[in-house]
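Protein in question reproduced for absentees:

***
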Amino acid sequence: MTGVLALFPELTDVNGDAQNALVLARRAVWAGHRDVGVERLAAGEAPATTPIAVVLGSTTDPMLPRLLAALQELRDDLEGWIEDGVPVLAVGTGLEALTRGVALPGAGSTVSGSCPRSRSRCPPARPATSSSERPRATSSATRTTPGASCWTRA
């Protein structure tokens, strides 16, 4: 069986985001792929195979350090998958965790992301400007071309 990998659903399913993996698996079956399922990878576990897609959902601010630690453990696998063209669907703080840092509004602090500091394509963390702002990703992911992510090896 090939699978869509749901990363750390115990940490990243606050808005039902981990369920995006179920939708992607079902759409793959509708597109003619056989035996596609969802594999759930908990923090601290090692992936068994290379997925056909990766889903990373959103988490809460208190859980963010655990998510970042789990991503660091998976870093080599994740970089390899991205280099091999495996698509990654990351939403909310899951996307923010793949950047250099997350600015926490009102707290005046930034939580370091999992993007390596040595990657020149990752912009530095930006501070939030007001306590009513939502945390922002420090990546320009929506403005970059494919392969221009900070997860691409130099």
Q: What stands out?
A: Strands lie at 2-7, 36-41, 53-56, 88-90, 101-104, 109-112, 136-137.
